[in-house]
Structures are given as structure tokens and as C-alpha cells.
Amino acid sequence: MRYNVHVRLQGDTVYYRTPKAIGHAIRNRRQELTLTQSDLARKMGVSRQWLVAVERGKPGAELGLILRGFNVLRMSVRLVPYDVTDREEITQD
Predict the structure, then answer these.
(1) Structural domains of the chain, with CATH
(2) Contacts (Cβ under 8 Å, ≥6 apart) of 91
(3) What is the value of pTM for the model shown?
(4) How far apart are CA 13 and CA 91, in angstroms?
(5) Cα distances (angstroms) measured from residue 38 to each of 26, 31, 45, 84, 89
(6) Residue 57: CB partners within 8 Å, gap ≥ 6?
(7) Cβ-count burial of 25 within 10 angstroms (0-12 exposed, 13-18 middle, 19+ buried)?
(8) Which of 14, 23, 39, 45 could cross-link with 35 by S-S, CB 3.0 to 4.6 Å?
């Protein structure tokens, strides 16, 4: 069974399937909160270089650190089964 990452931000729900799309979500939320990459990296306990790679879609990024970033950015995450009827809502970049 395939799963999507389901991210909820201020009442809006978006589905992501790729590391690149998740990286874009992290970057967009960081910018909404007016945090620099250095600010977010420090709050997450990671290097700025690691965060840059994640925002660019690094496929091998450690899940625990990604989840820590979602927590710092006040983003809730849950996994939902992939449903082909959700295609319009899925960000594939």
C-alpha cells in the first residue's frame, strides 16, 4: 500500500508524495514565519547545509529530523493511504 504525507497548515490540507514537494513545503512555511535557514536550522539542531539540501528535496533526509522541523514550523503531519481520487490534491514536484 502506498502512503502520502498529509500536511495540515492553518486548516488547509495538502498532500505530498515526493521529497522535493516536502522540501518546498518546509521552505514556504519557513518563509511565512520569516525565519532564515540559519534560524530554522538552529532551532532544529541541524546544520544550515542540511536544511538547504532538504529544502531542495534531498531524498535521503532522516525522517526524525524532518518531523522535528515540522514541529518547529507548527505543521501537523499524518500518513494517509494513497487514493487515486486524490490526484488533483497531490503535489508531485
Answers:
(1) 3-91 (1.10.260.40)
(2) 14, 15, 16, 17, 18, 21, 24, 25
(3) 0.75
(4) 11
(5) 14, 12, 10, 38, 31
(6) 18, 19, 20, 21, 22, 23, 24
(7) buried
(8) 39
Grid coordinates given for 90:
497531490
| pLDDT tens, N- to C-terminus, the chain (93 residues) | 445 565 555 556 667 778 888 899 899 999 999 999 999 999 999 999 999 999 999 999 998 999 999 999 998 877 767 665 555 444 444
- Structure-block grid coordinates of residue 16: 505530498
